[in-house]
Amino acid sequence: MDTLTDWALANLATYGASALLFISFVGSLGIPFPITLVIIAAGASVRVGLLDGWSALAACVVGAALADHSEYFLGRLAQPWLRRKFGQGGLWQHAQATLNRQGAWAILLTRFWLMPLAPAVNVIAGSRYPLIRFLAFDVLGQLIWVLIYGGLGYLFASQWEGVSRVASTFSALSFALVILLAGGYALLRRIPSGSAAEVAK
């Protein structure tokens, strides 16, 4: 990951917004990529004058939205096959449950929080939500994502690497907690009401 991070940061320094567009696209496809670190670094670069803020913001949002919409259209075209192939997987089931409970808000929340669920939510949404509605929630969520992490880099430019580590740790822990709670809730729903009462006693 260090080599990949070094490559991403080197290209950010060399190509600026163009690199951000590419990195945001690739990172939003669910490919393991230090995208959060790069967004925080971009915010720090804006603070010290190495990047234009509006160009960086647009590149991040557009790149991420393009990735999300490619998965959305994949869901429209290949939903039955994907469900057969991955329908029993834990991540897919959690994404399905999140979308069922939260509706379009799941699209918004997985842009900047619970991000590992975003690709599966995008694919599932492809067969469930109109394009315009998906576009609105997706772009709004990506804008919030960039403003949060880019804003942290901007505010703490001299400590952006430490901020990145804290942000990554918080994201991983909160995601694990939500998955744990969702699994516990699903388990409780499967227990017959009488058995649940006995357990409570």
Spell out the blueprint of helices and strands.
Blueprint: H1 2-15, H2 17-27, H3 35-47, H4 53-86, H5 90-102, H6 104-112, H7 118-125, H8 131-155, H9 160-190, H10 193-200
Salient structural properties:
10 helices, single chain, 201 residues, mainly alpha, 0% strand
Short description:
With 201 residues, this protein is mainly α.
Describe this structure in words.
- Helices cover 83% and strands 0% of the residues.
- It has one domain (2-200).
- It contains ten helices and no strands.
- The chain has helices at 2-15, 17-27, 35-47, 53-86, 90-102, 104-112, 118-125, 131-155, 160-190, 193-200.
- The chain is mainly alpha-helical and 201 residues long.
- It starts with a helix and ends with a helix.
- It is globular, with a radius of gyration of 19 Å.
- The longest helix is centred in the middle third of the chain and has 34 residues, at 53-86.
